[in-house]
Specification:
Blueprint: E1 7-10, H1 26-39, E2 43-47, H2 53-65, E3 70-76, H3 79-89, E4 95-102, H4 105-112, H5 116-131, E5 137-142, H6 149-162, E6 166-171, H7 178-191, E7 199-204, H8 211-220, E8 225-228, H9 242-251, H10 253-256, H11 267-278, H12 299-307, E9 329-330, H13 335-344, H14 351-367, E10 370-371, H15 373-385, E11 391-399, E12 407-414, E13 419-425, H16 429-441, E14 446-454, E15 463-471, E16 474-482, H17 485-506, H18 510-513
Helix pairs in contact: 1-2, 1-11, 2-3, 5-6, 6-7, 7-8, 14-15, 16-17
This protein binds zinc ion.
Zinc ion binds next to loops.
Amino acid sequence: MTANRLIVFDTTLRDGEQSPGASMNLAEKLEIALALRDLGVDVIEAGFPIASPGDFEAVQAIARQVEGPSICGLARCNTADIDRAWEALSDCPRPRIHVFLATSSIHREFKLHMAKDEIVRRAIEGVERAKGYCTDIEFSPEDAARTELDFLAEVVERAVAAGATTINIPDTVGYAVPSQYAAAIRYLKDNVPGIDNVVLSVHCHNDLGLAVANSLAALHEGARQVECTINGLGERAGNCALEEIVMAIKTRADYFDLETSINTKRLLPTSRLVSRITGMQVQRNKAIVGQNAFAHEAGIHQDGMLKERSTYEIMRPEDIGLTRTELVLGKHSGRHALRQRIRDLGYHLNDEQLKTVFDGFKALADRKKEIYDADIEALAESVIHTGPAFWTLEFVTCNGGSGTVPSAAVVLWHKDGTLYRDASVGDGPVDAVFKTIERITGIDITLKEYHVRSVTVGEDAQGEAQIEAEHHGRTLRGRAVSTDVIEASALAFLQCINRALLRQQQRINPQTEAVSVS
Ligand SMILES: [Zn+2]
């Protein structure tokens, strides 16, 4: 690998999944992992295997099924974590174990209750144990950005000597500023023997809105791996956004002189896929992938654009995968055209799933004239979401209007194959639907937000329902599309219920839930 090659380490499935309400099931994680492979990331951090059986299964499935990138599993510096990480990764052609241990005084004193020499000893033991399993070992001194530089250098030196091949310097709490973070990277470069034989990596959080800026400053000082997530998902304010850092490097190649293996044309489809699967919307004015990122409003700008695009545009929309004209499919579009469109939108469906989508497409084409990308995405999404769902909707009907008591009847399938039906009244027809679903499933969730909007144009447009809810203090998101807004609302609500049940099932090890992860 050449000196100016930047390794892109994606942690959407690990740190990104720690975003409140962004938990995913196995099929959803696999879909994202395949999209990340197509995008061209070098390393996929697939999860934290000891955290829950769900995390373990996801890392194992991705390690077995996603060829190309290195697949990484996270572990604390202890035997059980590292052994479990290896168990999940052992079938992988290119496994990486990522061990971490906090080094800052505040974490040493209040979280770990360990002295400096104990930290050093644990770090060495962790790296050595992981090294017994595979050669590609990453070590992270958690909260490195708040660690005394001389102690940080000591820990890093010992981790390198113990066999770490990548040293990651996390700004775990998003506290760093660019010049200071860059100086820390420079200090390690200047003071740690053997540092030039390993890859220095950065992992920045966005609490002050500086994750990308801090990462870029560190790359300028010689860091050669960046840890990032699609749409900047992650704990609290999130992580460094992959699409932003990649396009900054590409657009300012004159300044950074770095290369990545990212196929930037896949950035927008991947962003949309992750947004739909996690239910986390991208803000309209978000850099690179926001809806307004390439929209020019001011007349003087539009005039300049018409004369010469580069007057107001530093990137070409097509380079991130934005096509100006949306391909419209209709009733007579064939299976082949649909298959191609689905692939372009970033989905990896098997023949059986494709058949289901094609049937749905034909049925939808009977109801509406023109089928847009958003319609196809909704169809593709519905086949990914089914599978491991605990409850699926068979039938919903409701009554509303003035002078009547709003009521609803709902029929649901339980995953064991039993059909359940119930009916109730509510403050309105949608409320009655939600109440009935809660009665059948026995899960009470607190509705925080509920939005309905049209996703395509025309009288026959599909309606999208979005729900944010809370269950046992955790945020849940649901999103669904249908030509019938009541059905879309019921499906979105059911998705929240399924996510709540998935959480319950996965929360076997509450101790690891509380672990703040680098
Ligand atoms: Zn993090």
